[in-house]
Amino acid sequence: MSNSKTELSVISPKILDEQAEVRAWFTLKNPQYKVDDQLASGLNLGRNTPEHKNVINRNRTTLYETLDINPQWVATADQVHSNKIEEITEGGTFKATDGLITRIPGLTLAIQVADCAAILLWDEHNKIVAALHAGWRGAVADIVPMSIEHMTALGGDPQKTKAFVSPCISVANFEVGHEVAEQFPDQFVDYESYKKPHVDLKRFLEQQLREGGLLESNIEIRSECTIANAEQFYSYRREGDQSGRMMALIQISEHS
């Protein structure tokens, strides 16, 4: 993606039909991107980071211009690792929530992450989209099945719904204590290969999507690990408080 000012790299879901009336992206770190006075290198989009507020605002403005998104029609979540979901009808920041759902064309839903998974859901046929923040807490609190149920209550059809699970922490790098591991079914925890348990968050989320009624062919799980690839991704586990944030965005096209 590019405009006259800069060139930015984003991931677009492979299962998103080019002719679809839905637009979706996941931003990369973009280490080549620089603005004055920034603390974290690259396109940091996280307002919950130590970065100067004016830098984050400039970064977001650049992204929205690049993707042709109306900044007044962007809904973001003040994420708290919960399973709270809100149906959104306007732009703004929504407090203490980790899931956004809308049926409004042109309204962009945005979730920020740095090791947690961002999940984008869309039922193009029934014109419903969702953006979820799914770290381990949200995952075991069932934010995914609850969101599918919420979309279904709005007229969605799980068998017509597609899902994109962003790059996030991999099982090889997701070391946890036993108090966390025991909250996941055993088949999603590796107790044998490492000194401490390791959780397979991606496979757990995929199982939840399939149990929610989504077809296997309609689920895209990105294989990249945010911790393992410092060039492409921010990682809170790798960088701590100095980590920036990527963003997942989705909207129903205004012309639909």
Rg from C-alpha positions? 17 Å
How many structural domains are formed by the residues?
1
Strand percent estimate: 15-25%
Strand neighbour order, sheet with most strands? 1-2-14-7-3-5
CATH architecture descriptor name: 4-Layer Sandwich
The CATH topology label is CNF1/YfiH-like putative cysteine hydrolases
Supply the helix-strand structural class.
alpha/beta
The parts where pLDDT drops under 50 for at least 5 residues are 1-5
In DSSP terms (H or I, runs of 4 or more residues), the helix count works out at 6
CATH C-level: Alpha Beta
Biggest pleated-sheet summary: 6 strands, mixed
What is the N-to-C succession of helices and strands? EEHEEEEEEEHHEHEEHEHE
Range of helix content:
10-25%
Q: How many DSSP E strands?
A: 14
Family: Belongs to the purine nucleoside phosphorylase YfiH/LACC1 family.
Protein name: Purine nucleoside phosphorylase
Keywords: Hydrolase, Metal-binding, Transferase, Zinc
GO molecular function: copper ion binding; hydrolase activity; S-methyl-5-thioadenosine phosphorylase activity
What characteristics describe this protein?
CNF1/YfiH-like putative cysteine hydrolases, disordered N terminus, 256 residues, single chain, alpha/beta, 6 helices, six-stranded mixed β-sheet
In brief:
With about 260 residues, the protein is an alpha/beta fold. Helices cover about 20% and strands about 25% of the residues.
Description:
- Belongs to the purine nucleoside phosphorylase YfiH/LACC1 family.
- This protein has a single domain (15-251), classed as CNF1/YfiH-like putative cysteine hydrolases (4-Layer Sandwich).
- Helices cover 20% and strands 23% of the residues.
- It contains six helices and 14 strands.
- It has helices at residues 53-67, 136-140, 143-153, 178-181, 201-211, 236-239; strands spanning 10-11, 22-27, 74-77, 85-87, 92-94, 99-102, 108-113, 117-123, 128-134, 162-165, 189-190, 198-199, 219-221, 246-252.
- The strands form three sheets. The protein has a six-stranded mixed β-sheet, with no helix packed on it.
- Residues 1-5 have low confidence and may be disordered.
